[in-house]
Design goal:
single chain, mainly alpha, Heme Oxygenase, Chain A, 65% helix
């Protein structure tokens, strides 16, 4: 933050980042590297209080960001298992993505929320989700000007729903903010960024990395396709869990909205968005599959982290939540 607020020079960041990457056993789970990348990315979104907007394209900061991105992408490509590619035809690509998401055997965080989660665990769940969902759809929107034809039209159709069809109160980020407040939490974006572990930040950073780089437009499309295809049923379970804990319909609106909306979106995302892009640019097919597989893998790791810490009777946050809530 000293660099972002002008207390130190931007040129000082890259050497520190380079050293941190060299000494880190795993960039994906490295709290300092993921938080640094998250902050550098925020300069491209709503900005950071106290940071000069001119830093968004500062060459020294971009150089430091590139170091982390390179390490993150390399780690993902090494660890994520990508399925064999089908023919670059819309129906075949859609079918392959549905097969990939149906075969996902990661831990079911949604079922745990539905059946067992305590109120405190639900609060923590919302804290983790707030890092992305209070700006829901924004990372995927970077892809809009990088697509054309059928894929572009499909993405705009999906994003229009995400942004409430022109009605601010129906934006999914705004609906989620109501759920956050219903749980007694602060719905201001970024409130809890210091509390979440690297894997939560990595999930969001991965989306932004895919979205910001034109060469990775296949990956962001694949990510969104998998994201939509694995949303409807889990959100039904999340809604059930919140109702079990006494939350009213206003608080569960976000989850209930996604049960219906994403059942439609998954069809558009699989065949028209991902399939349409594969037909138009067959050379991007492998990255489409990589983005989808990375979505499932990283979100699975994040879900496993939450379930493991809760099973051990520990908090999934880096610091106690009440220190922020009571502040």
């Amino acid at each position: 933050m000293a660099i972002l607020t002008g207390a130190r020079e931007p040129r000082e960041l890259a050497p520190v980042v380079e050293s941190s990457i060299a000494s880190s056993p795993d960039v994906i789970s490295d709290d300092d590297l993921q938080l640094t990348l998250f902050c550098l990315y925020e300069l491209h979104y709503g900005g950071i209080i106290g940071a000069d907007d001119a830093l968004e394209w500062n060459a020294e900061l971009i150089a430091a960001r590139t170091l982390i991105e390179t390490a993150l992408e390399a780690a993902l490509r090494e660890r994520v298992v990508v399925p064999d590619a089908p023919e670059p035809q819309a129906d075949a690509v859609g079918a392959a993505l549905f097969e990939l998401t149906a075969a996902d055997s990661g831990p079911s965080l949604s079922r745990y929320i539905a059946r067992k989660a305590s109120f405190e665990e639900v609060q923590e769940f919302l804290v983790h989700r707030s890092i992305y969902t209070l700006k829901e759809a924004d990372p995927h929107s970077w892809a809009v000007p990088r697509l054309s034809g059928r894929a572009k039209a499909a993405l705009v159709e999906i994003q229009s729903d995400e942004y409430g069809g022109g009605r601010p109160h129906r934006m999914h980020s705004a609906i989620f903010a109501g759920t956050v407040r219903a749980a007694g939490l602060d719905s201001a974006y970024g409130t809890y960024v210091d509390l979440v572990p690297a894997i939560t930040l990595a999930s969001v950073n991965m989306m932004t990395m895919f979205g910001l780089h034109r060469r990775l437009r296949g990956a962001i499309v694949g990510h969104l396709a998998a994201f939509e295809m694995t949303s409807s049923i889990p959100n039904r379970f999340y809604g059930d869990g919140f109702r079990r804990l006494g939350f009213d319909s206003d608080a569960t609106w976000y989850f209930d909205e996604h049960v219906e909306a994403d059942a439609v979106h998954e069809q558009i995302a699989g065949r028209d968005l991902a399939g349409g892009l594969a037909e138009a640019e067959p050379e991007l097919l492998n990255d489409i599959l990589f983005g989808a597989a990375a979505c499932l893998a990283v979100d699975g790791w994040a879900g496993e982290y939450l379930l493991t810490t809760w099973a051990e009777g520990e908090s999934s946050l880096r610091h106690p939540l009440f220190e922020v809530v009571d502040a």
